[in-house]
Design a protein that fits this description.
With about 200 residues, this protein is α/β, with parallel strands linked by helices. It has 10 helices and 5 strands. The chain has helices at about 50-55, 55-65, 70, 80-90, 105-115, 120-125, 130-140, 145, 160-175, 185-195; strands at about 5-10, 20-30, 35-45, 100-105, 130. Helix 7 (about 130-140) packs parallel to helix 9. InterPro entries: Oligoribonuclease, Ribonucl_H, RNaseH-like_sf, RNaseH_sf. It comes from Embleya scabrispora.
Length: about 200
Amino acid sequence: MNDRLVWIDCEMTGLDLSRDALVEVAALVTDSELKILGDGVDVVIRPPAEALAGMPDVVRRMHTASGLLDELEAGVSLAEAEAEVLRYIKAHVPDGRKAPLCGNSIGTDRGFLARDMLDLDAYLHYRVIDVSSIKELARRWYPRVYFQSPPKAGNHRALADIHESIEELRYYREAIFVPEPGPDSDTAKAIAARYGHKPAERA
């Protein structure tokens, strides 16, 4: 069983798939214990002039503050960026469609990958691990844990954002997930009997 996890974060000129462009993509691979494998990869992409010109002011300010805007002119093409990211991922995940895509609000990133980096998107499993989902559940079920979660720098650079997502999942794993070795088979079976094969309870 392949237990590797592929973490990806993207920076864009905005969130509109019909007009905005990728400007940075980074990736890290971890094992199931969230140990980072290799150095990762972080690639700046040169966007089309029209996407750059149409960038919303709030996004322009964000990418200016992070320094990303100044790097765009020297960025590579989408094809070059995709190839570089795939080289790193394949070095640690040799079999395609095995490792899930991980990150925060990862559906947004996946939308841009599915549009612009088809080979990369196809190499990943269709399942995702979204740390934002765990965060939202913690807010509702474990509010004390949620409100003590580690602060984020929020510098909006792709590789730094991945590191923060991994740290966030490490925190939630230790704070709310059942400690190792977890329940035995009989206990797990009893829990499953309480929740499986019936409609969820209504409020």
